[in-house]
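In response to the reviewer comment on reproducibility (Comment 2.3), we provide here a single inverse folding case reported in full, input and output, so that an independent group could reproduce the run without further information from us. The structure tokens appear first.
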């Protein structure tokens, strides 16, 4: 949950990447933003960056990193999906982790199901939905990138949009940006701040609702979802 900017596209000219990288690094130095090139990320052991070029930057400590990573054809590339595609060992580890998480969830829900049936004979229960890692569309996912700005404030969001606008205007004319707040397209700061504030209210409601659940009580996914739905549909001006 939170205001997110999604982006995808390709450089008009792959040969312009060194100039773009220098532009971003210079702007980050001037503005005091954190910035790391792909070579640094590879040295630090960030999975999925090997074979890519570009930079990652952070406009605020509470903002997610904005990754401008490009493959050999100049496509913006999601390095997590890139790692799954290019590193079979890494893909196997992720697949094993997902399988283990699903196994643990099945065990947990099995226990909750038994307890629930004792209280409500014949009640409807929610089964665990399993995800087959091999079914993930990696070729599609590798082209999609996103950065969440929700917890960093409007200035950080504006900064991310500024970088993406520079990329679109100078280097990637076909860049597609989907900004939850609409700021990238309309540059309406009031609407951006309103969107951030509204999501903050919803986050607080969800947190409060979860914390209000009595310790040790049994909650099926359906129970929890219904509680949260009721909390989220209250008027947006209900701040307390």
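Designed residues, in position order:
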């Amino acid at each position: 949950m939170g205001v997110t900017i999604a982006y995808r596209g390709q450089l008009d000219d792959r040969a312009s990447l060194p100039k773009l990288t220098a532009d971003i690094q210079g702007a980050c130095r001037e503005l005091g933003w954190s910035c790391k090139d792909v070579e640094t990320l590879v040295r630090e052991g960030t999975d999925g960056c090997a074979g890519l070029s570009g930079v990652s930057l952070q406009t605020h400590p509470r903002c997610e990193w904005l990754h401008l990573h490009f493959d050999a054809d100049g496509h913006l590339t999601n390095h997590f999906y890139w790692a799954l595609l290019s590193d079979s060992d890494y893909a196997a580890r992720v697949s094993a982790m997902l399988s283990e998480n699903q196994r643990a969830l099945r065990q947990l829900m099995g226990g909750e199901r038994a307890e629930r049936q004792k209280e409500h004979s014949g009640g409807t229960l929610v089964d665990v939905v399993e995800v087959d890692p091999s079914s993930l569309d990696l070729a599609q996912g590798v082209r999609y990138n996103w950065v969440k700005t929700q917890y960093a404030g409007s200035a950080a969001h504006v900064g991310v949009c500024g970088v993406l606008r520079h990329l679109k205007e100078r280097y990637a004319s076909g860049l597609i940006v989907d900004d939850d707040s609409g700021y990238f397209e309309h540059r309406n700061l009031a609407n951006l701040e309103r969107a951030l504030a509204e999501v903050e209210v919803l986050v607080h409601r969800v947190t409060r609702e979860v914390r209000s659940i009595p310790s040790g009580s049994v909650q099926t996914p359906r129970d929890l979802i219904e509680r949260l739905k009721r909390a989220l549909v209250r008027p947006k001006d209900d701040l307390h």
